[in-house]
Amino acid sequence: MKLTIALVGNQNCGKTTLFNQLTGSIQHVGNFPGVTVERKSGFVKSSLIHTDDVPVKNLEIEIFDLPGVYSLSPYTPEEIVTRDFIINEKPDAILNILDATNIERNLYLTLQLEELQVPMVLALNMMDEVIAAGNSIDVNKLSANMQLDAVPVSAVKADGIEELVNRIVDVAINKKKPLKVDFCDAGPVHQAIHSMAHLIQDHCEARSLPVRYAATKLIEDDKLMLEAIGLNENETDILDHITTEMERDAGTDRAAAIADMRYSYIEKVTSDCVHRVGETPAQMRSYKIDKVLTGKYTAIPIFLCIMALIFWLTFGVIGKFLSDAFGSALAALTNLIDTGLTAYQLSPVAKSLIIDGVCTGVTSVLSFMPTILVLFFFLALLEDTGYMARVAFVMDTALRKIGLSGKSFVPMLIGFGCSVPAVMSTRTLSSRRDKKMTIFIIPFMSCSAKLPVYSLLSAAFFPDHAALVMIGLYIGGFIIAILSALLLKGTVFRGKPVPFVLELPAYRLPSLKNMGLSIWDKAKDFLHKAFTVIFTATVIIWFLQHFDLKLNLVSDSSASILSAIGSLIAPIFRPLGFGDWRISTALITGLTAKEAVVSTLAILAGGGTDAGLTAALTTMLTPASALAFLTFVLLYMPCVATFAVIRKEIGTKHAIGSAVYQCCTAWIFAFLVYTIALLF
Question: What pLDDT was estimated at residue 170?
Answer without folding.
Answer: 92
